[in-house]
Specification:
- This is Aip3p/Bud6 N-terminal domain-containing protein.
- InterPro entries: Aip3p_Bud6_N (IPR056279).
- The chain contains 4 helices and no strands.
- It is an all-alpha fold.
- α1 runs antiparallel to α2, α1 runs antiparallel to α4 and α3 packs antiparallel against α4.
- The N and C termini lie far apart (42 Å).
C-alpha cells in the first residue's frame, strides 16, 4: 500500500537561510500531520490547500511592499506543507499515488528562499513569481489528473441521483 509523503522538507524559507537551509529536524516540519476528522476527504483537503496557495501569493504581495515579514511568509509555507501532507494522506486513503508531485514542497521552498534572500520589492516578487506560479500549476495539474480516478473510486450508484427522484 502507498505509504504517503515520506520526505521531510522542514526548513522554512528565510533571509538567513544560508546557515539552516537544509535542516531536516525542525519541530514545525511537514510530518506534523495528525489526521483529519474525516480521513480520505479529498475535496476538503484540496480546497484547503488551494486556499493556502492563494494566501501565499497574497502574503508575498504584502511582503514585497513591506506590509508582511519573512516570518509571515514562512508561516504560510509551513501551513501549505501540513496541508500538502493532508492531501497525500487523503489520496492514499483511496490508493491514489501522488508521487509525481512530491517535489512540489521542495521546489516551492527553493523559490521562496531565493526570493526572501532579496530585498522586499515588487520587482523582486515579479522576478520570482513566474517560477512559483509554475510550481503551483504543476501541483494543480497533478491534483486535477487524479480527480477522475478519485471520483470513480468514491462514487456509489444511487437512485437519489436520478432525475426522476430529484423532485
Amino acid at each position: 500500500m502507498y505509504s504517503g509523503y515520506e520526505s521531510s522538507p522542514t526548513a522554512t524559507p528565510s533571509r538567513s537561510s544560508s546557515t539552516s537551509t537544509h535542516s531536516h529536524h525542525s519541530s514545525s516540519g511537514w510530518n506534523g500531520y495528525r489526521g483529519s476528522p474525516t480521513q480520505g476527504d479529498v475535496p476538503t483537503a484540496v480546497h484547503t490547500l488551494l486556499a493556502s496557495t492563494k494566501k501565499l501569493q497574497a502574503i508575498l504581495e504584502e511582503w514585497s511592499v513591506g506590509r508582511a515579514d519573512e516570518t509571515e511568509v514562512s508561516d504560510v509555507y509551513v501551513q501549505i506543507g501540513t496541508e500538502f501532507n493532508t492531501i497525500i494522506t487523503a489520496f492514499a486513503y483511496h490508493q491514489i499515488d501522488l508521487s509525481d508531485i512530491h517535489s512540489v514542497p521542495h521546489e516551492m521552498r527553493d523559490v521562496l528562499e531565493r526570493c526572501l534572500a532579496e530585498e522586499p520589492a515588487p520587482e523582486t516578487l515579479a522576478q520570482f513569481m513566474p517560477e512559483l506560479k509554475a510550481i503551483l500549476i504543476k501541483l494543480l495539474r497533478g491534483l486535477h489528473t487524479r480527480q477522475e480516478t478519485w471520483q470513480a473510486r468514491t462514487s456509489i450508484p444511487s437512485n437519489r441521483s436520478s432525475p426522476r427522484n430529484s423532485r
